[in-house]
Design brief:
- By secondary structure, the chain is an all-alpha fold.
- Helices cover about 70% and strands about 0% of the residues.
- The protein is built from six helices and no strands.
- The radius of gyration is 12 Å and the shape is globular.
């Protein structure tokens, strides 16, 4: 499952529309392109969305099926983000 698909699943499970889900973080039309697999989302934007809806990033990653290479990339980016 891709990150955009998972974001959509989380959003729908919370009963939120795109505008509510990303308010103050990214544009809702950009979220639509992420959910549809047309665009990638920055790690910082993903974290900000998850923090906004109080959804722990670690749980999101555990549920999201990533291959080992992708998981390493996300972990490195996450560590770099947290250091700054």
């Amino acid at each position: 499952m891709k990150i955009g698909q998972k974001l959509k699943m989380v959003r729908l499970s919370l009963g939120m529309n795109r505008k509510e889900f990303v308010k103050g973080v990214i544009d809702n039309s950009y979220l639509a392109s992420v959910e549809n697999g047309e665009s990638d989302i920055r790690v910082t934007s993903l974290i900000n969305i998850l923090q906004k809806i109080i959804y722990p990033f670690r749980i999101f990653l555990k549920i999201l099926i990533l291959n080992i290479r992708d998981r390493k990339i996300v972990c490195v980016r996450m560590n770099n983000f947290l250091k700054h």
